[in-house]
Amino acid sequence: MQYFSIKSILFVTLIFVFTSGYSQKQNTLDTLYSVKDLKSDFSILRSTLEEVHPGLYIHQTEQSLDSIFKATELKLNKPMTSVEFSILLGKLTSQLGDGHLKLAPPEVFFKTLRNGAYMLPFSVSSYGNKVYSSKDFSELNPKDFIGSQIISVNGFKMSDFLQEYLSLMSSDGANLTRKHRLLSSPMQLNQYFAMLNGFTSSYKVEYIPLNESTVKTVQLKGVSFEKLMESTNERYPKSDAEEQPIELKLDKTNATAYLRISTFSSRNYKKNEIDFKAFLINAFEKLNSESISNLIIDVRGNSGGEDAFGKTLFSHFVDKDFNYYKSLTVNKDGFDSFKYTERPDTKPPKGMFEKNEEGTFDFVRHPNVGIQKPSTPTYKGNILVLINGLSFSTTSEFMSLLHFHTDAIFIGEESGGGYYGNRSGMIPYFTMPKTKVRAKIPIVNYRLAVEGYKYTDRGIIPNYPMKRTIEDEINKIDVELDFAKKLIKKGF
Question: Which fold has domain 100-237?
Answer without folding.
Answer: Pdz3 Domain (2.30.42)
